[in-house]
Structure formats: structure tokens, C-alpha cells
User: Fold this.
Amino acid sequence: MPLKNSDTTHIIEEKDEYEAKRYAEYLYEAKDDIVKKYNLHEIEERLTEALNYNLVHGELMGLKMLLPAYKELVKQKDLKEHQLKSVHILGWCVELMIRTFMINDDIMDKSSMRYGRSCWYTMENVGMSAVNDCIIFENLCYHLLAKHFRNTEYYVDMMEMFHEVMLITSCGQCMDMVAGQRPIASFTKTAYRNLTHVKTAHCALYMPFASAMYLAGIKNPLAFRQIKSICLEMGYFSQAQNDVFDCFVNEKETGNIGTDIEENKLSWLAVECMLRATDDQKRIMEECYGKKDPEKVQQVIKLYNDLQLLEVYRDFEVERLKNIETQLQQATHEVPRKAVLEVLNRIRKRDIVKYV
Assistant:
């Protein structure tokens, strides 16, 4: 569920090869630094392969959110070379963190596909060594932050933010795992909302926007509280949308294979179903949810349809969008409102109606 299903690929649409891939030298620079410093030449090829597969040829969602947000905050359409360098180095730091979580999530969920490609850990000669790759990615992020931003006035605050996101999202991963071991009768709206906040919103949304704000010299604590609140709401909405897509939209459209029902995931659909189900319908859920039997999976989907949960979701979507837009309107100018609204509009355009 969360990190896998909360992939923000659908948020970003680029017609051309994204500019950041021309700045991959900064990513390789971090690899070269540690290879030289610690005499790691024997694994240099493996490190390059891991970076190429997971980052350079990845979706770059964090980079694509950070750049327009920074341009908006500094009020510049065209950035100078030193600004572009800083944006892209920081963007790679964000990407390294995001990929760390995604690889771990794929392993824990036993996923096979992400973005229409085989998950990294399923590749030949990778396997569980992908767990160690995650540790390397995380620490390459800290290496880049220290090397390029140590002398800035915002370095300590930004580094603390990255560590906070790592801690919160890791705990969210644990929450997702623990929730999947519990009976469906224990699922609640409060637990679900909290899960989307700690496992989805901080990493996928708050980290890129907050990074842009630090880089732009924003110091106002209110602005950071506001962007966090907005991102938590967007994460809640986006995750619920992804849960619906996981169930009702096929792999060809999403690039992922939906397994929330089989894996007993704490999902928006499961929570809403249990809130509306009769006693008999709840018994069906208890007998069928979390089972890998295709017939039982279909019984759950039929129950979702019987309870008209797609209609419930559409009402939920309208309510959440209104709430997020109100928060954006009330936010200080030190929040990148246009960039956030662009991301929100991308999510909004992902209409379930055309798929079902």
C-alpha cells in the first residue's frame, strides 16, 4: 500500500526528457567520492548500476516538484548556472531518499513491478542485497548535503528535516506492516489517515517542497507549518485515490500490480466498506479480505460495488480538494502555492471514471 501505491508518477507529465538527467554528474560525483575515499573500486560498477536503474532512469518525481517550486519562490523563470546546480544537487538528495523508501517498500510488499518496470530487488544478482543498496542511497544523500550545503545558514535545519522524514516514513512503513497483520475489523479511519501522513505525505510531498523553501531562503516557521499541513492533506487524498486505482484499474494503466486485498492492506476502500457494511457483509469481508484466493478477492470487489464505494469516493474527493484549496488560499506567499496547485491539479485529472 502506501509508498508503492502512493507513487506520484501520475502527478508529473513531461513531454521531453527531463532536464535534470543532464545533471546526473552530481549524483555520480557522490559515488566517485566514496569510492576514492574508502577504496571501493571493486564495487564501483555495482554502485553505478544501482544508481542508473533506480535514479538516473527513474521517474524523478521529487526533482520535478522541487524545481518549479524554487523558481516560484525566487521569482525567476530562468535560473543562473549556480542556482541550477544547487537545485539539482538537492533534487538528487530528495530522489535518493525517495528511492530508499520505494525499494524497501517493494521488498516488504513482495512487489514485482513499479512504474511498469521490474522492481530492483527482483533483478538478477540483486535480491536482498537491495536492502544494503538502500542504506548506501540514504548515506549518499547525507554526503551530498554535507559537501554542497554545509556552509549555508539553512544546512542544519534542512539536514534535520531529511532525518525527520527518514524516521517518520520508516515508522510509517512499520505501521503499514503491523496493520496488515491485524483483522480487518480493527481498521479505522483514524488509523488510515495517520498512516497516509507518516508513510506517504512526508516523503513524497513535504520533503520536495520544504527543500525548495530552504534553498530559496525561506525562514518563516509559519510557512513550513502551512506547507506540511497542505502536504499531509494531499497525501491523504492521493493515497485514497491510489487505493481505489489499486482495486479497480489494471496494471497496464498504473504500472503496478494491485494487491491490497490479497495483502490485507489498511486501505481507504476497506475502511469505508467496514463502516457501511451490514453484519452479513462484514462477515464476507472477514472471510475473504487478506486471502490470495482469486474468488475471494472478487467477492470483496463485488462488495465494494454493492456498497457503491466509487460514488462514496467521488464525494470524498470533492471534500478533500475543497479543503486543500482553502488551505492554499490562506497560505503565506512564502509557500510555493502555484507549484503545489499544479501537483494537485495533476492528481485531480487522474479520473477513475474513465477507467471503470
Notes: The chain is about 70% helix and 0% strand. The CA atoms of residues 6 and 184 lie 21 Å apart. Strands lie at 113-114, 117-118.
